TrEMBL record:
Record organism: Candidatus Borkfalkia avistercoris
Domain Ferrous iron transporter FeoA-like stretches: 15-87
Name this protein carries in UniProt: Ferrous iron transport protein A
Keywords: Iron
InterPro entries hit by this protein: Fe-transptr_FeoA-like, FeoA_core_dom, Transcriptional_repressor_C
UniProt-recorded Gene Ontology molecular function terms: transition metal ion binding
Pfam families associated with the record: FeoA
Amino acid sequence: RYGISGRAASYSQYMKVSEMKAGESARVIAVAAEKKAAERLKMLNVYEGARITLVRRAPFGGGVMLEAGGVRLACGEKLAEGISVAKECGDERADI
């Protein structure tokens, strides 16, 4: 499992991907997943320091669709709960 790095101190609002709203963007600060899942996420541009956007939520807690580095991916609710993100200080939209 991956932890939160020292870079996390420059962020103003922490949350899990599962807590994000559709259209929100943030930086990944940690991925808490089994090694295989974490490696797969990294291949799909979801890794510590990456900018991600929550595109939409599935109904009834069915997971989320993320966009990272131009790639869209579906992510189950359990995995989304393990991805910690944060908006950067002074960046209300938190997107570039």
